[in-house]
């Protein structure tokens, strides 16, 4: 009984320690939660769904301003999956919604 309560106490103490995690060791997240490209309105809606080329340009422009490059992994359907790179090193993986212009980190 005593060892069980000690074990439970240790597990609870260890589970209480949760360090902050970022997508890359730079300290700040690369993609803020639920950000959007400026090609659509601030409210996250486009008049028409962007073409895959328009979406690639929008992502490249968005991340170029932050000093990163974008490599598209998959561009099928409404969403585009891409890697965000800093000097060739992957710092984030994102999903870009071509209908709303929303950018979400999945890294």
Can you describe this structure?
With 107 residues, the chain is α+β, with helices and mostly antiparallel strands. The protein is 26% helix and 27% strand. It has 2 helices and 5 strands; from the N terminus they run H-E-H-E-E-E-E. It has helices at 2-16, 52-64, and strands at 35-36, 69-74, 79-86, 89-97, 102-105. Strands 1-5-4-3-2 form a 5-stranded antiparallel sheet, with helices on one face. It starts with a helix and ends with a strand. Mean pLDDT is 79; it is low at 18-24.
Question: Key features?
Answer:
five-stranded antiparallel sheet; elongated; single chain; 26% helix; 5 strands; alpha+beta; 2 helices; 107 residues; 27% strand
């Amino acid at each position: 009984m005593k060892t069980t309560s000690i074990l439970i106490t240790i597990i609870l103490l260890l589970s209480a320690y949760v360090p902050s995690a970022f997508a890359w060791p730079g300290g700040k997240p690369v993609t803020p939660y639920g950000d959007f490209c400026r090609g659509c309105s601030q409210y996250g809606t486009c008049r028409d769904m962007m073409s895959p080329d328009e979406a690639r340009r929008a992502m490249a422009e968005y991340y170029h301003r932050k000093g990163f490059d974008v490599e598209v992994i998959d561009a099928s359907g409404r969403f585009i999956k891409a890697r965000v790179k800093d000097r060739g090193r992957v710092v984030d993986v994102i999903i870009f919604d071509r209908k709303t212009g929303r950018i979400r980190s999945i890294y």
